[in-house]
Amino acid sequence: MTFRLWLNSTGTDKVFKAKLTWPVRLNICIGIARGLAYLHEESHMRIIHRDVKASNVLLDENFNAKISDFGLAKLNDDGNTHINTRVVGTMGYMAPEYAMRGHLTTKADVYSFGILALEIVSGISCNKNINYKSETEEYLNLFDWVS
Fold it and tell me: Which domains, ranges and CATH numbers included, belong to the chain?
């Protein structure tokens, strides 16, 4: 799994590959979940990120996760239960109701987080085909493989 390392001192991003232990993976997932909980429930405006994926998670030197790249984020006031909007984001991470109908709620970020957690646990990218042969399909993606 490749993550960008967030370096405070130089302000530059570096890509590296690291063997992540289970406690480190768990800590990364918890950090992302806490970040999403803040965006969805604790900030003054409800923020829906719309593009939660590994390349939008920065890790500091202690592997603490920071959500980044809010270019696609949508602000939502508490009165709205959902937003109907143009679909943007990365295929493979988008919630089905958002990808098909443009129906955006905080649940879309939670779905994306679930796909990201599967990637972190399995070490397999959601957009890479898995060499697995079943009776009906020669290759499966990560979501189909686990379901």
Answer: 2-146 (1.10.510.10)
